[in-house]
Amino acid sequence: MHQPACFVDPTKPDHVCLLKKSMYGLKQSPRAWYQRFAQFATKIGFTQSKCDPSLFILRHGSGFAYLLLYVDDIILTASTPSLIRSIISSLKSEFPMSDLGFLHYFLGIAVRRDKNGLFMDQRNYAADILHRANMTNCKPCRTPVDTAAKLEAAIGEPVADPTLYRSLAGALQYLTFTRPDIAYAVQQICLYMHDPREPHFSALKRILRYLKGTISQGLHITPSKTTTLTAYIDADWGGCQNTRRSTSGYCVYLGDNLISWSSKRQPTVSCSSAEAEYRGVANVVAETIWVRNLLLEIHCPIQTATIVYCDNVSAVYLSTNPIQHQRTKHVEMDIHFVRERVALGQAGGHACYHTRCPNGAGMIQVRQDLAPGLPLANKYIDIDIAILKDKSNGNWWLYVAGKQVGFWPSSRFKVSSGTMVEWGGAVYSPPSSPSPMMGTGRFPQGNPHLDSYIRLISIIDGDYKEDKKVNNIYSYSDSNHGYKVRDATKTWWSHTGHIILYGGPGGI
């Protein structure tokens, strides 16, 4: 660093000037500007978000306003036009600024309004990436990644221009802001930026060919009456060919809108698929906690528990059963906070897998309840005892406190994967208005006997014919008694480590 021209003291050539204000280009300048702006925003009534320091929130009577700052670019929205004008006027009185009108372009993201909501895309940025790679006229590809191929380090010849590879990979990372469909593919090629090889460059070019055919795609944010938070997670156990570390990915929906997603290689090697999935669950629960807190700050609290869908039953048990599991004693303590959130009723989960619906509606996704306490409340639905009666003709009957409340004909009984039992039928209250239902349950660990209890049983209300998905979930649990099952030793089947409901004819 040197003194500027005309300020050099000939007697002190090695000295520098002491600045009283930040100058553009100094490493302290962004921080100094942020503190200057935050100070003024607080002065005019804004409060700084604890979840996102770049977000400022103003509550003015019954109105509200939100201001998002990125360096010297600002997005401002408010409940009334007059409040927006008032805030802009206050900002102009302190900082030289230009009002660009309605949001249409921000940090390379185009925003388009229509009657159905907002559409965000980066087609111009994608076109620029294709131009930089000299692939503007390339042949489109229907998928961004070849799932049958696995990339490895030090395989193939080094690329001729590693800088170009790194530049394109970094640009594709920015593109994932509105293109979650390429998140996994981009994550894979970014693993090899330190030593890119020809197979890696071929994978990168495949992403570019996919972008060529889908350049106009983006995110459509629509108004939604649903305010639930739902997450989906999956993990590829030991997918990395060099480190054998797993890759996990998740997506989070607020109502019908996708608001957060990620694809990332896990930091440690998992000893089982259950551990890999459990780490993935921990990642997405951490993300949903941040989303819930952010929504709370902007006065849009989520009143129900966050539902997390996972396709690994063992990860489900790890999340909901706070006991020492023999094969997972080595798992780091930090990811066990998932159990705490489930116990508090702030998160619930479901094991997801595909099966054929008993009533012939085709392939649907069946969701098994994981956690009691839904919707979010500090209450349990207290049931003294429920006896699941198995009639000799193979039909299933559900009794609560001695009163029959459900019936499942044997024709709708289904066993999935040899470990979980599923059945469809009707729970009627009153009997004149039945609705399609499903029930699941399981024994605690250990050998079943006459006094075995079901620790968790759920009844899922859904209409398979109309929307092919479950709508509402009602969980019933009695931690002291559970659900007593008669003749357990004769009519139920056990699996090593986990005792699962398995149906068969018998008396009561």
Overview of the structural elements:
This protein has 508 residues and is α+β, with helices and mostly antiparallel strands. The chain has four domains: 1-101, no CATH class; 120-218, no CATH class; 228-356, 2-Layer Sandwich (Nucleotidyltransferase, domain 5); 381-491, no CATH class. Helices cover 24% and strands 28% of the residues. It contains ten helices and 24 strands. It has helices at residues 29-43, 81-94, 123-132, 162-175, 183-190, 198-213, 273-297, 313-320, 337-343, 488-491, and strands spanning 47-48, 55-60, 63-70, 73-78, 105-106, 109-114, 117-121, 218-221, 229-236, 247-254, 257-265, 306-310, 347-356, 363-369, 386-390, 396-400, 403-408, 413-416, 420-427, 436-442, 453-454, 456-463, 469-476, 483-484. The strands form five sheets. Strands 15, 16, 17, 18, 19, 20, 22 and 23 form an eight-stranded antiparallel sheet that branches. A six-stranded mixed sheet has the order 11-10-9-12-13-14. A four-stranded antiparallel sheet has the order 1-2-3-4. Strand 6 and strand 7 form a beta hairpin. The longest helix is centred in the middle third of the chain and has 25 residues, at 273-297. Residues 348-508 have low confidence and may be disordered.
Based on the model shown, name its key terms.
alpha+beta; 6-stranded mixed β-sheet; Neprosin PEP catalytic domain-containing protein; Neprosin; DNA/RNA_pol_sf; 10 helices; single chain; Nucleotidyltransferase, domain 5; RVT_2; 508 residues
